[in-house]
Amino acid sequence: MNRFEATIERAAYGELTVVPKLSLHVSGGELLVLLGPNGAGKTTSLRALAGTVGTLRRNLRLDGQDLSGQSPWQLARSRIAFVPDGARCFANATVEENLRGAFEALSPRSAHAERQRLCEVVFELFPVLRQRSRQLAGSMSGGQRQMLAIGRALMIEPRVLMLDEPSAGLAPKLVEELFEALGRIKAASRCAIVMAEQNFAAAMSVADTCLVLDEGHVALSGTMQEIASNEKLRIAYLGL
């Protein structure tokens, strides 16, 4: 089922509160997008959910199981994957080594067949990674590294996948390819996806529901169709 429910209170950097309170829920096979301009609190919200930003209170439940006290490492073991912004991967390792390392961090090194199966899933989604499997990640383009960052997350077969602005800095063609792959990920793997994004048009192509943040507060919520059809609200909060 993979129903993910979360509430955070007072996500802050020291004394600076960025997100006073946020609640969300998303089920397997669905994508929830957090929209809003720079400074709205999207990235802080995801980092607070992942446990890399301090909160006064954090409540996480996956299919009813309480994961609130888990560290980022423990969340990964519970198959909640977080892909931060910046297309992060190991620059001095090859594509294949990045994928293998992500798998072996949480799984027995002897599980060769399972690792190969998951690598094949990643290569089917992102064919360029197969072509460049022996290339150092640091020598690839930003779009290719972003694909690799997502591929690394898929190596743990996530039940929940959290993505921070995956389209940032990418050319339109790469954005299109990336979001097409995200659509296939949510349909095929049935994982629940939470994504922070600024690209409204790209998000519309794949997201089911939406939270629009404004200075850390939820200004709008609903289906993507509801948000897209309300011109006044789009202009007020998204500048569209």
Using the alpha-carbon principal axes, give the shape.
globular
Provide the residue-averaged pLDDT. Answer: 92
Structural class: alpha/beta
Strand order of the largest sheet: 6-7-8-3-9-10
The number of helices is 10
Radius of gyration: 17 Å
Q: Which residues sit in consecutive blocks of at least 5 with pLDDT less than 50? A: none
Largest sheet: 6 strands, mixed
Secondary-structure element series = EEEHEEHEHHHHEHEHEEHH
Question: What proportion of the residues is helical, as a percent range?
Answer: 25-40%
User: What proportion strand?
Assistant: 25-35%
Number of strands: 10
- How far apart lie the N and C ends? 35 Å
Task: Write structural notes for this entry.
The protein contains 10 helices and 10 strands. By secondary structure, the protein is α/β, with parallel strands linked by helices. The chain has helices spanning 42-50, 72-77, 95-104, 112-125, 127-131, 142-154, 172-189, 200-204, 224-229, 231-238, and strands at residues 4-13, 16-26, 31-35, 55-62, 65-66, 80-83, 160-164, 192-196, 209-214, 217-223. Strand 1 and strand 2 form a beta hairpin. Helix 3 (95-104) runs parallel beside helix 6 (142-154). The model has no long low-confidence stretch (mean pLDDT 92).
Descriptive tags:
four-stranded antiparallel sheet, alpha/beta, 10 helices, globular, 240 residues, 39% helix, six-stranded mixed sheet
Describe the secondary structure blueprint for this structure.
Elements: E1 4-13, E2 16-26, E3 31-35, H1 42-50, E4 55-62, E5 65-66, H2 72-77, E6 80-83, H3 95-104, H4 112-125, H5 127-131, H6 142-154, E7 160-164, H7 172-189, E8 192-196, H8 200-204, E9 209-214, E10 217-223, H9 224-229, H10 231-238
Parallel strand pairs: 3-8, 3-9, 6-7, 7-8
Antiparallel strand pairs: 1-2, 1-4, 4-5, 9-10
Helix pairs in contact: 3-6
